[in-house]
Amino acid sequence: MAMDSELLSLIQSNNALDDDQTRDVRRMLHVACTGLSLTEQTILMVSLVLADLEHQKRRQHEDILAMEGALSPIRRIPPEILVEVFIFCGGP
């Protein structure tokens, strides 16, 4: 909510406000505080949604890695052959 230039000038000066101006400033202050509160609530909600989305993303990435690992070509080699390879490479 934008202040009109006359009220803005009064607020920025050292002059005392009359009763009407004081009432206007209090009303505008209330509106501004309400707006700030709503903005803070929105930020909190968006932050919670973002945190949930980040958690989903990590979980999906882990699932993808697990599936890619299941498709690894080495998994098609029979265990008996792998044992022989490791025995052979193990040394004397």
Number of separate helices:
3
> Which sequence of SSEs, written as H and E, runs from N to C?
HHH
| Largest sheet entry | none
Low-confidence spans: none
Shape field: rod-shaped
Mean pLDDT: 90
**Total individual domains:** 1
Strand content: under 5%
Distance between the termini: 83 Å
Total strands: the figure is 0
User: Helix- and strand-based class?
Assistant: mainly alpha
The percent of residues in helical segments reads over 70%
Supply Rg. 33 Å
Give the topology, please.
Elements: H1 5-12, H2 19-70, H3 79-89
Overview of this protein structure:
By secondary structure, the chain is an all-alpha fold. The protein is built from 3 helices and no strands. The protein has helices spanning 5-12, 19-70, 79-89. The model has no long low-confidence stretch (mean pLDDT 90).
Short description:
The protein is mainly alpha-helical and 92 residues long. The chain has 3 helices and no strands. It has one domain.
Features:
92 residues, mainly alpha, 3 helices
